[in-house]
Structure of Uroporphyrinogen decarboxylase:
Amino acid sequence: MELVQKPLLRALSGEAVWPPPFWLMRQAGRYLPEYRQLRAQAGDFIALCTSPALAAEVTLQPLRRYGMDGAILFSDILMLPWALGQSLRYAEGEGPLLEPIRDAEAFARLDPSGVANRIAPILETVTRVRSGLDQEAPKAALIGFAGSPFTVACYMVEGRGGGEFAHARRMAYSDPALFGRIIRLLVDSTIEYLLAQAEAGAEALMLFDSWAGLLPPIQFRRWSIDPTAAIVRGIRKVRPDIPLIGFPRLAGPLLPEYAARTGVGTVAMDTGMDPRWAVANVPEGITLQGNMDPQALVSGGDAMEAEARSILAAMRGRPFVFNLGHGIVPPTPPEHVAALARVIRMG
Ligand code: 1CP
C-alpha cells in the first residue's frame, strides 16, 4: 500500500498527520535561479509548459532543495482555454493575454475536439514527474490541477488578468445564458482534463478558484460552488477516492458552505482567513490547507517564524496541510523557504 503511506495523501484523506505535510503554491518559479535559467532556454512560457522534459524538471526543482511532501505539476490554469483553441500568449511583465470571448460568435470558435491533442504533452509531463518522484522523492505525492470554471472564465471573457474582471462579472448578470455555456463547457472539459491527469499519474487534484471572492453570495453559489460540485461528481464517478482540494480564494464566511456543498475533501485557506475561525466553522471531516502570507516568506526571520507557528498552533490535531495563502512571489529569497521548512518540520 505505497499510496497510503505518503504523508500528504494521508492528510488529504482526513488524517491529522503531525508534523503536517507541506508544499507551497507556486513553489516552482521565478524566485528559484535554476528555474530562471531553464526558463531562458525554453523560450516562451507555453513552450515550457508543453515540453515534458523541461516542465518535469521544473516541477522537481523545489523538491530537491526543500523536500516538500507534494509536487505540483508545472503548468498553468490557462492551458485549458488554450487547449480549447482560444489564442493565448504570456507577455513579459504583463501576465496572460487572450483573445476575449464576449459574444456567442467568439464562443462558437472554441473547439473542444482539439483538447486531447493539445493536452497530450502536459499529460506526458505528469507521467514523467511521477516516475521522477519514484526515483528521487518516493514519499512525495504529485498534485495535478486546473482552474475552477469561474476563474478560468474570468480570463477567457476579460482577455487578461491584473484587474477586477468587470466584463466577465457583468456578463454573468447581463447574459447568464452565454456565461453559463462557457461555464458548462469548462465543467465538462475540466472533468476530462483532471481525469486524464489522474490517469497519467497525478495522485491528488486541486481546483484553483482564485477570483471566487469577487462574487456576492448568490453568484458565488451559482458560478463557484455549483460548477465545482459538478466537477467533483464527474471525477468521483470514475475516481471515487482521489483526494480533491478546492481553493475558493477570498470566500470568507462562505468557505464552510463551499466545503460542505462542493464535495471536496480539502479546502485551501487564503491569506486573510483566520485559521481558528476555519477550524471552528469548516465541517470537521474536511482537511484544511494554508495559509501563511507569501509576504511573510519574503521577509523571513522571526516575523515569518511567528506567523508559521501561530498557524501550526491553530491547526494541531486537525487534518492539515501547511501551505501559503497564495503563491510564492518572485522576490522571495530561496533560503527563507528552507527556514520555513525547518519550522514546519518541528511541528
Ligand atoms: O514568466 C513566467 O515564468 C510565468 C509566470 C507563471 C508561472 C510560474 C505563470 C503565468 N503561471 C505559472 C505557473 C503556475 N500557475 C502554476 C504552477 C505550479 C506551481 O504552483 O508551482 C500554477 C498552479 C498556476 C495557477 C494559476 N495561474 C492561477 C491560480 C493560482 C493563483 O496564483 O491564484 C492563476 C490565477 C494563474 C494565471 C496566471 N498565469 C501566469 C500569471 C502571471 C497568472 C496571474 C495573472 C493575474 O495576475 O491575473
